[in-house]
Amino acid sequence: MDDDDAPEEVFAELKTRPIGGWGIAQIGAGTGLAVYAMWVGILQPGFRKVPLRLQVPYIPASKAQVQNVMTLLRGRKGGLVDLGSGDGRIVLEAHQHGFSPAVGYELNPWLVQLARFHAWRAGHHEKVSYRREDLWKVDLTKCKNITVFLAPSVLSLLQEKLQAELPDDALVIAGRFPLPDWKPCRIEGQGVDRAWAYSMQAQRQNIGKENNNSITTE
């Protein structure tokens, strides 16, 4: 999805495309975005049971941010998981770069429906998956490519889950904010568009070295 998509352009496109039952459902979801935008400051569906410090505001990734993520994933293959997938643009772009399956996990139901609408518009709704699920409950033990655009307060806790569950050959890409205690193996972009890549194997080796140094010091 382009950042500068105008509503009239979307509706013009819908007039020229066969819609079908799936399309009607996704148009309804897309229309719901307007309601979401009006009420987002008052009601966050799905967030009521989430502690305030773990809530993540919806800020769409820019074109530059998406491109930086894809650059860091260059040469990788297999599936991709986006934790806190928002409107789904990272998952959709990953699919278009050959990652399969490409799956997004998002707790907010409006954003899940919006992501599915964007996938339908792009003609890929049967090839990507968006699931309404708490990222803390997602099993990451078989994930090799993980992307996260989350707030620093969440990333500090997410490190522990990634460390405990991901295989050694996994690569984690963080956009907008870096993982606070991890050392990146690559960095792409500048300013708010920057993205950081982390090798799980290198991260575990770093932790092992730190533990050894700590034991030696004691």
UniProtKB/TrEMBL annotation:
> Which is one Gene Ontology cellular component term of this protein?
mitochondrion
The terms under GO molecular function for this entry are: protein-lysine N-methyltransferase activity
For this chain's UniProt record, which GO biological process terms are given?
methylation; regulation of mitochondrial ATP synthesis coupled proton transport
- Highest taxon in the source lineage: Eukaryota
**Which keywords accompany this UniProt record?**
Membrane, Methyltransferase, S-adenosyl-L-methionine, Transferase, Transmembrane, Transmembrane helix
Transmembrane segments in this chain: where? 20-43
Q: Which PANTHER family match?
A: ADENINE NUCLEOTIDE TRANSLOCASE LYSINE N-METHYLTRANSFERASE, METHYLTRANSFERASE DOMAIN-CONTAINING PROTEIN
Family assignment?
Belongs to the ANT/ATPSC lysine N-methyltransferase family.
- Its name, as the record gives it, is Adenine nucleotide translocase lysine methyltransferase
